[in-house]
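Running low. Invent one:
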Amino acid sequence: MRRRLILMGLWIWLSAVVRAAQGPWVIKVLSYNIHHGEGTDGKVDLERIAAVIRSAEPDVVALQEVDRYTRRTGNVDQAQQLACLTGMQFFFGRTIDYQGGMYGNAALARLPVNGFANWALPFTPGREPRGVVQLHVYTGNTEAANTIFRFFATHLDVSEADRVKAAEALLAITAEEPDLPSLLAGDLNALRDSPPLRKLAEAWQVAGDVLPTFPSAAPTRQIDYILYRPAHRWRVVEVRVLDEAVASDHRPILAVLELLPETSEPQPALLRRPWLR
């Protein structure tokens, strides 16, 4: 079974490389707070999480609340296991040490990655440290491995003051290459009209209308998002929340975006709330 999954993942990955080398690019992005693999039934089941991810066939995935070698989840590397089960590469970003191991964010990628960083975000002393994983994703062209977009995966604090500080830091980090197409995905612990989202809206657009993601059993509010920048380089094709109520306490959110040529004219605001203009 495991060998079949690996072979299947390799085939999908190679297909994605060929597609990326040809362009234009349609990128499928998934964000999922996996609650260290523990579902609402109290069971830790990474295969169940992996099945949800595989069902969406994403190119890149932002994962939050990921354990690495902690006692509570059997001392396993959850990012590595999910990568094996989905046929993707993994990149883990530690935010804290926990129960003999580590805990933090992770990213999975089916496309080639040409750079990885784990940035610390500002936080109030005594609160949980936060971070953001950054990937440079590229075409795989053997002549010139050009970055086609940056991918950021993060999980912000429940404290609004810390979320605003983190949003300011994210703006500073992503401003270093302002013209490079970028995607930001994660559990932002904030509503659409909140100060942290308003701060991010200075440079980022939220993909999709309001789509509740939490709690998973019967979602009433959206706190998980996929954002993009610059606006004229992306066209939102589809955004939806996956119908999975048990595998985690969050539902995953999926966005399909087309990366437009550099010479594209600015696109009309798709599914944007007025304050995101």
Observations:
- The first strand starts at residue 25 and ends at 33.
- Residues 52 and 244 are 8 Å apart (CA to CA).
- Helices lie at 2-22, 46-56, 78-86, 160-174, 195-200.
- Confidence is low (pLDDT under 50) at residues 18-22, 266-277.
